[in-house]
Amino acid sequence: MKTIVITGATAGIGKEAAKALAQQGFTVISNARNLSKAAQVRQQLVQETGNQNVYFFEGDFSNLQSVQQFAQSVAQRFPAIDVLINNAGTWEMERKNSHQGIEMNFAVNHLAPMLLTLLLLPVLKKTRNARIVNTASGAHRRNILNLDDIEFKNQSYNGVATYSQSKLCNILFSLQLQDELKGTGITVNTIHPGIVHTDLFKNMEARDWNNTPNAAHGARSALYAALSPDMEDISGKYIYLEQEDPNLSPMATNKQYAQQLWNLSLQYLKNYC
Prior knowledge:
CATH architecture: 3-Layer(aba) Sandwich
Low-confidence stretches: none
Distance between the termini: 29 Å
CATH superfamily: NAD(P)-binding Rossmann-like Domain
Oligomer: single chain
Radius of gyration: 17 Å
Number of helices: 8
CATH class: Alpha Beta
Shape: globular
Structural class: alpha/beta
C-alpha cells in the first residue's frame, strides 16, 4: 500500500483528505505544531477508519528549522514515499513574521512546502511514479508577484495581496519543479480546492458562508491528483475537483517568473537544504 505525506492534516481539508486516505488503507503521515492535538486527531482517524497507520510528527510550518526536522523525522522512519500533498497553509490579514522573520503568508504557503519537497525528494525518488501535489488557489489570478519586494517590506501591507501572491508562487514552484524533475518519474501537479468552510477563511463574515462547500468537498481535488489512475504519468496540470481547470493566469505559466522565483526562494532556504 502507498505511503502518503499530507501536511496540515489536523483540521479542515487536510484532515478530511487524511481520513479518506486512511479509509483506503494507506499509510498517512502529517505534521503538527501541537502534538497533543495531533494525538487526538490521530485517535479519531484511527477510530473512524480502522487504520492504525496514521502518524504525526512535530512540524511548525512558520519555522523553516522545524520543517527541516519534520522532513528528517519522516525520512528516517519511512525510506520511501509514494505521494507528497503540500496542503498546509495560512492566510494572515495583518502583517506577521515567521520564526525566521519572513512575511508569514510567503513563509508558510510557499517557502515551507518548497523546503519540505526538496528535503523529501530522495525518498520520493525511491518510489516508482511518485506524485507531488501542491495546493494553490483561484486567488493566484490577481497576478501579484513582487520579486523585488516579495515580503511587502517597502509597500503598504495587504493580506489579500500577500496571500494571492503566495498562491501564485505555489503554481510557479510546480512549474519549475516539473522541469527540475524531468526524467525522474516523479509527477508534479497543482490543485485548487475551491472556497470551502475551513479555518483558513476565518476572516470572512458569517453571511459569506451560505451554501459554501465543506472541507470534504475541498479535499476532492487533492485526492484526485494524488490517487487517480487518470493522473498516472501526468505532470504540469492545474486541477479542480476531478478535472483540469483552464483558468490559469498568464503569469502562472511564465517560465521566466518561475525560474526567478526558484532562485530567490533558494536564497531563503540555503541554510536548510
